[in-house]
Amino acid sequence: MDRFEQILKQYWGYTSFRSIQREIIESVYNGTDTLALMPTGGGKSITFQVPALAKEGVCLVITPLIALMKDQVENLKQRGISATAIHSGLSSHEIDIELDNCAYGNIKFLYLSPERLATPLFKERVRKMKVSLVAIDESHCISQWGYDFRPSYLKIVEIRELLPPDVPFLALTATATPDVVEDIQQKLGFKNGKVFRMSFARDNLVYLVRNVEDKIKHLLKIANGIPGTGVVYVRSRDKTKEIALMLRQNGISADFYHAGLTMEIRNTKQSDWQSGKTRIIVATNAFGMGIDKPNVRFVVHMDLPDSPEAYFQEAGRAGRDQKLAYAILLFNESDTLKISQRLESNFPPIEEIRRTYQALGSYLNIAIGGGRDEVYDFNLMDFCSVYRLNSVKAYNSLKLLEREGYIELTDELDNPSRLIFTVNKQELYKYQVAHADLDKFIKVILRNFTGVFSQYVRIDEAYLSRLAAIPTAKVFENLKTLSHNKIINFIPKKRTPLVIMTTERLDEKNLRINPESFQMLRNRFVSRVDALITYAKSQTKCRSQMLSEYFGEKDSFRCGKCDVCTQRNELDMSKYEFDMILDGIKQAVLQNACSDETLIDSLKRNPERVIRVIKYLLDNGKLIRNEQGLLNWHS
Description:
By secondary structure, the chain is of the alpha/beta class.
């Protein structure tokens, strides 16, 4: 085994790399700026974790997903790898300590959110770190052409000035069109960089579109027809509950999940589904980030997502164990109308965005000219209630303000209680002697939590209650006392979304929202939605091919398994022959409507095979007959 394989075996238990992982690892290890396009479930994290473990120093991992950041840090720690995370939910003291540990300790991975990079504290400390590699996850967020642009990503390139020139960048994404691929490299300052693409085709995943009026009835058919665990995606929180209840009433184990539930409830529901206690989870798109359940047999979309990127990522959560799985989109004509309504709520008028910004400043009690780089707890529903705002439009106004670079808005953070001892062991001993009533409690902490003198450690008051055999209320009281006496720094648990003011609060006349940029965003949203509607309505092109070509794969193959391919397979002819006949038919009828006989004669091919293709195109609505019975092409 070579060095990379030894690391893979030691920490992950695998003996060989998958697909293009090896080439990416070698490229990064050799100091080359690298962009890796790997679909969901392709094993992206291995491509930076292995070379970072083979090098000296700390690997910076930049990601906007705080929940995913925490999951990966815990995952690495469980494998015996030192890792930490810095994000907007931490106190300045915690951030200070973790940055010190990265500069002077043995931390191998520092996960951080992009807005942290611009802070003076980080810029000062990163110069003292021996940085081996910078990995940028969700790198499509750097591109304004992308579907999830975040202005804070544009600052990433600035850390090149603070690092030695030989520190490589590794950009990772699961969803990038050719325009975005170019944009990522340019915005990250790649010099002679390499691009590695893993095929977007998933051989084990069967894409199906079902044009049905009664989606609920069809969902039941799917749930009863495909054994194993599944995910059902819907647009609204209310529908998650309604559909889960309907499934349970029909004897199917199901639960619902959305961002409006408390973190404890979400964690419980997710755990029950992960363990197999719940068979089907009905969820909004809040569910899925960081989920790595390999044996998902089907993912059903009851509603159209906003883009092929979102659909591909969510559908790709099925079949990560490489066994047969299904991605099923339920669609009907009313979905097209719903999409146009969504467009209006996703892009409120510019004046409404301005009003939302001023209301936010008042709600957070920020004076004009103040608030820059400050972090605020934020409750969207309370904000909307106080200022009588439509919650959907207010949320989308805030997301547009984020795209303009005025604020950052995080999802709800689950920040457990943390503590650190602020005295040394000798001073602590004196305190224990003088405060016998707290001695046993302090010993319980010291025995059960490591590293409490050098870093903040997460604690659970209920767990401490059991260990110390005292009520939870008494645990909380003891922690407050120790904090008041400056023996520990104690940060109680908190669950809230956050708003970060990336600029000072501006008055009405200085808040600029570029109308051209706004219109460009709106147009791009429309074009992505149109691409997804085309995917849903198409009945002549392989589903897998359509998705692969959307992401720039020019040499993709028919999957042979989707609903389109299955229907075409019944024609008993090769793809080449079918495509040649189809192209001939299309060119002929686009010039002039014609009869079946004229068309068959003009193609000079086997008449029986041409008739089969004509019938197929008529059945699938690509050919139609006019009032005279002549054939026309239906675009």
